[in-house]
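Blinded run. Sample ID left blank on purpose so nobody reads anything into the name before looking at the predicted structure. Input follows.
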Amino acid sequence: MLGPTANVIFAVLLTAAVGIWLRRHLHRRDWPIAAAFLVAVALTGFFGFRLVDRALYWTNPAHQHQAPQPWMTVGFLARSWHLPPPELAQAIGITDGSMRGLRLSEIAEVQGIPIEALIDTLNDRLAQERTRADGPDEPGATSPP
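Blinded prediction complete.
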């Protein structure tokens, strides 16, 4: 992901280009409407760029099914594995949103356990998810709900 700075730069450049065009083609009495239009262009550019940036990041196969690392958050890991973040948080003993946004290393520190133990727990849960996603091994077998 390019980040919020790139979003702002894109929105400013797009707004400046539209503003230059509007300045050459509008009369003074039309400027209030033009200003509202420029704000709409800036917001559309900002959020549109953000949408495309995130879509490109998460569709890259290198960012899917990543192994847990201490710098990751539960939300990042959940998106990587296409799981709901509360489900993955529950696997490591978080039942409320109190640790939202904390890195795995910070969660392990708060829980008073080594980061390796937390990562092992996550690896076990993700291995279950991988087994469930792969489906049954035998053609006539069904997987548990």
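Unblinding after everyone has recorded impressions. The chain has two domains: 4-59, 74-134.
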